Amino acid sequence: ADQPNDRLESSRPKAPTQKQEKDLQRRKQELFEFRKNLPVFTARDQIIKGVQENETVVIVGETGSGKTTQIPQFLLECGIGSPGRGAIAVTQPRRVAATSLAKRVAEEVGTTLGYRVGYTVRFDDTSSQHTMIKYLTDGMLLRELLSDKLLLRYSVVMLDEAHERTLRTDMLFGMVKEIQQTRKEMVQRGEKNVCELKIVVMSATLDAEKFSEYFNGARIMYVSGRLFPVKVYNTIEPQSDYLDAALVTIFQIHMRRPKGDILVFLTGQEEIETLTALLTEYAGQLPSNVQALLPCPLFAALPPAQQQKVFEPAPHNTRKVVLATNIAETSITISGIRYVIDCGVAKVRGFNAKIGVESLLVHPISKSSARQRMGRAGREAAGFCYRLYTEPSFGSLEENTIPEIKRCNLAAAVLNLKAAGVNDVLHFDYMDRPSRTSLSRALEQLYSLSAIDDKGTLTQEGNQMAEFPLDPVFSKVLIQSQQYECTSEVISIISLLSVDSVFFTPPDKRDNVAEAKKRFVHPDGDHLTLLNVLKSYWEVKGDKEWCRENFINMRNIKIVLDVRNQLIQFCTRMGIVSSTSAGNETDNILKSFLSGFFQNTALLQPDGTYKSVVGGQTISIHPGSSMFGKRVEAIMYNELVFTTKQYVRGVSTVQGAWLPMAAPKYFGNSKLASTTTT
Ligand code: ADP
Ligand code: MG
């Protein structure tokens, strides 16, 4: 019963067989030659001593110096992590990092993955009771806290990539700090079966004092890295299309510059796939006397086998071009990179306090991020960094990335805190305290979703929502779908919303794509249109030719199907029946979504524009939406994107009369009336 509920594919890793053992040992020896030369290796004894003598240590070291892969092994070798005392948890903000690092370290330790070294990420638990080093996403450690409030299965918690200051890392900071204190008191009282909890905070940037201060003056240790000089080029003019600029730069490097792989930082899966396709096309047309070009995409949703490909050295006479999200900034190090191309932006979760909704924003990176990206070019030799923005624009960047807790919708965080037993979220020990306003707003949202009652206590439904591996809004939708008997459809649509797009959009075929999309349009909007795509895909049994003709992104559909399967398994475990709606299917599906997305609604105005119900902002339907240009009484949308205008995407039509029903607590007062009569 101590396993969180959303571990679905709990594979049961076994000890290696004798035959495997031999291969594992050979590989271990081979990798040891590499490990020995990592910068942290020379600091091994000091690091062990540092952790033995201090309850908390902050370790700072250049990306690639070996912090994440080596230090857990040191702590295992010296017995700080042991079957008696507890395992070593290493948290990562990103799932891809957790899985690929675990894989690597399992090889270095000489064990099968999931046996002595493993990982736990949402929907995939490759660990066992024998696992002594466990890489896990910070979200998963938070979930483990639900069932193991003092994290007794661990003797050390390593909070990695602390500089990223994701919401979850910040929550963990506060929680492990308190657990450390509690466990210390228990040990002092002489309680059995408890040892003190060591905390190791690891960061790639130099802002260690702040972490140290927060952890009561923790000891700071610096691991000296090595970094070769990197020459930086900025563009002279601002670039209107950085994808195009990146493409041009890649070929300039390829044709004119000496050997060495290229790393391109982009914002997301869709861009990466577009550029990969373009590169593949052009690379095929290179003259035969030029070395080949091999594009390697790297983003979170990429299947593990493909992720592993970026680590493999390029074949003979081939230049590798890694196209990555900011995952390659500090969490994952790829060898062979001499050239970095930095588009200067990243996709971040943003929260607009004025209209009270969360949205994904393509946001300029900080100077500190830009320097990290640059550094990737100088790990093995002198390198070059091409910034696709001007020098003055670099000057205008924020110094450091603003902690997520200061920018995002806190509802999920507050729900998690509450479920983890932190009832007084206003007085939690935050490293950076979110504003009172955003905390209150989160509480208000949770209240309107019926996740907490008017005293701020978690309701039964709220408890259930915290169990869900989803944003509370989606959890609500899923829970409500039972009542509307359309859980199966709702699960499909939520899964479809988990990818950027189910369509593939080559830039030169925009018109054809638009034409293809029309075949799936449902009159009630994007939610049902998406469902149509999936249904059609099933009808033709995923026929490849059909996908090509209709510009269906097969890889994304596979991801959708995977998420869908996982959600179905999850619901089964939670005792939710995936019923299919019989009667008024369309309305029921939309009503289910509305029960979570009632704040993402807008009403048609006499002048033909839409005004958001919350905040009364004028919003436009994104041209990519099937609802573009349509006038209906009321719309509900999945997300708000700021570009030149405030666009909404994932739009469906709803009836104004449904709103009070969807969220009686929210619309119970005269809120709705007061926003419509303007
Ligand atoms: P840090 O945490 O200090 O940034 P890491 O421990 O992640 O450093 O990486 C140390 C070295 O291990 C890097 O040089 C990297 O190239 C190598 N490495 C890490 N993961 C893999 C992998 N999956 N495959 C091959 N090499 C890897
Ligand atoms: Mg690391």
UniProtKB/TrEMBL annotation:
Its EC number is 3.6.4.13. It comes from Umbelopsis ramanniana AG. It comes from the Eukaryota. Residues 48-224 form the Helicase ATP-binding domain. Keywords: ATP-binding, Helicase, Hydrolase, mRNA processing, mRNA splicing, Nucleotide-binding. One of its GO terms (biological process) is mRNA processing. This is RNA helicase. It is an enzyme of class 3 (hydrolase). Pfam families: DEAD, HA2_C, Helicase_C, OB_NTP_bind, WHD_HA2. GO terms for molecular function: ATP binding; double-stranded RNA binding; hydrolase activity; RNA helicase activity. The lineage of its organism: Eukaryota, Fungi, Fungi incertae sedis, Mucoromycota, Mucoromycotina. GO terms for cellular component: nucleolus; U2-type spliceosomal complex. It catalyses: ATP + H2O = ADP + phosphate + H(+). Residues 1-12 have a biased composition (Basic and acidic residues). Residues 242-421 form the Helicase C-terminal domain. Signal peptide: none annotated. Gene3D superfamilies: 1.20.120.1080, P-loop containing nucleotide triphosphate hydrolases.
